[in-house]
């Protein structure tokens, strides 16, 4: 893909997040159906800036996405991993009660968070811990808005502690076991993806508090 097209794709993604943050605050019902498309676009832009010629990297992205999806299916069906919860319709088409797009979010968050951690820490263990902390922190922020956005619903109304423990463990193990392959990730784009998600959900969170 040409450098110009990649840049325009990146600019368009930034525009989507900024306009989406404004739109969700004004009229969330109108913008909620665009959530799956936004996740797909985010994954596309993220991947075109990565070493996609490296089959190991692509397979790693797919492996984390599949691992996350499998954990979600087990979680929804058994309530064992994350607690008693179910998905709404905002994230799109579901298989076994779990939206397919949630797998993309798992891969994006874990790989992007690990990439950031590699620029701050030196050892794979420390990097994986920080990566898990970043990923879990973002999940905590999203949890405050999940039911409002029709993402998912916990029977208790809010996610319990074991939900965050599960997020941390899954993120940590994925980062640690795949750390050598993930070192090739484009850290600048990874940081931008994390920043966009933090910006988007922070805007929505603050709008609910004002």
Summarize the structure.
The protein is mainly alpha-helical.
Helix count equals 9
What's the overall average pLDDT, rounded?
Answer: 91
Order of helices and strands: HHHHEEEHHEHHH
How many domains? The number is: 1
Whole-angstrom Rg: 16 Å
- Label the structural class: mainly alpha
Q: Beta-strand percentage? A: under 5%
Question: What can you tell me about this protein's structure?
Answer:
It is a single chain. The protein has one domain (3-209). With 210 residues, the chain is mainly alpha-helical. Strand 2 and strand 3 (98-99) form a beta hairpin. The protein is globular, with a radius of gyration of 16 Å. 70% of the residues lie in helices and 5% in strands. The termini are far apart. Helix 4 (55-78) crosses helix 5. The strands form two sheets. A two-stranded antiparallel sheet has the order 1-4.
List keywords for this structure.
210 residues; globular; single chain; two-stranded antiparallel ribbon; 5% strand; 9 helices; mainly alpha
Topology (SSEs and partners):
Elements: H1 3-26, H2 28-31, H3 35-48, H4 55-78, E1 85-87, E2 94-95, E3 98-99, H5 101-118, H6 124-143, E4 152-154, H7 161-177, H8 179-182, H9 187-209
Antiparallel strand pairs: 1-4, 2-3
Helix pairs in contact: 1-3, 1-9, 3-5, 4-5, 5-6, 5-9, 6-7
């Amino acid at each position: 893909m040409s450098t110009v097209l990649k840049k325009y794709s990146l600019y368009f993604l930034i525009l989507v997040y900024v306009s989406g943050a404004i739109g969700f605050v004004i009229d969330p019902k109108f913008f909620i159906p665009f959530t799956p498309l936004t996740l797909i676009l985010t994954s596309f832009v993220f991947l075109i800036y990565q070493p996609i010629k490296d089959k190991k990297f692509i397979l790693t992205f797919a492996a984390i996405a599949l691992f996350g999806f499998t954990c979600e299916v087990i979680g929804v069906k058994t309530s064992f991993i994350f607690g008693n919860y179910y998905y709404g319709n905002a994230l799109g088409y579901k298989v076994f009660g779990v939206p397919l797009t949630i797998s993309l979010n798992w891969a994006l968050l874990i790989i992007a968070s690990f990439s950031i951690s590699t620029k701050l820490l030196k050892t794979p263990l420390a990097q994986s811990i920080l990566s898990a902390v970043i990923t879990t922190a973002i999940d905590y922020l999203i949890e405050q808005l999940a039911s409002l956005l029709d993402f998912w619903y916990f029977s208790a109304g809010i996610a319990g502690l074991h939900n965050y423990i599960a997020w941390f463990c899954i993120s940590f193990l994925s980062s640690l076991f795949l750390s050598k392959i993930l070192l090739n990730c484009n850290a600048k784009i990874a940081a931008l993806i994390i920043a966009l998600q933090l910006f988007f959900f922070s805007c929505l969170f603050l709008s609910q508090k004002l």
